[in-house]
Every structure is written in structure tokens, then in C-alpha cells.
Design a protein that fits this description.
The protein is mainly beta. An eight-stranded antiparallel β-barrel has the order 2-3-4-5-6-7-8-9. The chain has one helix and nine strands, in the order H-E-E-E-E-E-E-E-E-E.
Amino acid sequence: MKLLSIGLFVPCLAFAASISANSQRANAADLPANIEVKDATSVATVHAEGVQIYECKTGSDNKMSWQFREPLATLLQDGTTVGRHFAGPGWEFADGSSIKGKVASQAPGATKNDIAILRLDVVEHRGDGALSKVTAVQRLDTKGGVFSGACDQPGAMHLEPYTARYVFLAN
């Protein structure tokens, strides 16, 4: 059992070291003011590749439309999977740390097909890894993820591909 513990410890240690090496002062020069996180330091920056999941539902107006249900994405750093993003919204890193966030503000994506850029405040922490001190998350450089179209089968699902850059910040 000790070999298993060491076998898990070494990759987690390497992962934490790579995050520390990539830590830098958060750069807010090109961000809308409502997305900035003042006096924050970047704990980690990852690239996300995934989908925005939409469900065909009947709304309060008795019309069917595609409604956002949840995200599902793989988090990558230098081409290596380091975690996942899921409903909550939540993020979990390979070191076992995880957070949940709440949208604090948003701004439009670069095109009508790009989901909004976001600033999220962290409302829950689990684990002692890289995410344990994160207080805010920025979703930036979004590509894709917006879906609209005919919705005629209640309960139908649609997965719309998207990419984004997530910056995990602490102050």
C-alpha cells in the first residue's frame, strides 16, 4: 500500500510544481472592468475543451426552447489533462482539490457564437491541493458553446463544443 501512496504522491507533487511555475500576477489589462479581480494572483491557468449541454424544455411561456443545463470539459495544461469542469459550476484538479463557484459578473464573448466570459466567486472548497486557496475564477477567451435552433422534442439534449481559458485566482 505504501507504494501506491508514493505512486500517487509523486504525480501530484509534479502537478503542484507545474502550477507554481506557471503562477503569475493576474493581468487585467485587456479585461472588462467587471471581470477583473483586483489584487489577485494567478494560482493556475488551464485550457478547457468540452461541451455546453443544452436541454429542450417547455418554458413558462409554454414554448419549447433550448435551455442551458451544464458544462462538461477537460482541463489541460501543456497538453496534459490536469482536471475537469462540470455542473455546479465546479472544477476538480488531479491533486484532489476542487471548488464550486457562483457567477459574479459576465461580459459578451467575442462573437454571437461564443459563450460569455465570466468572473466567478468561489463558494466551496474541498481538498488541500492547488485549488484550496482559490477565491475567484475567470472564464476567458471563449470559443463556441452557444446553441439555438428548433427545439421540438422535450427532453432532447444537445452538446455544443466550446473551448475557454480558466484562470484560478487567490488574494
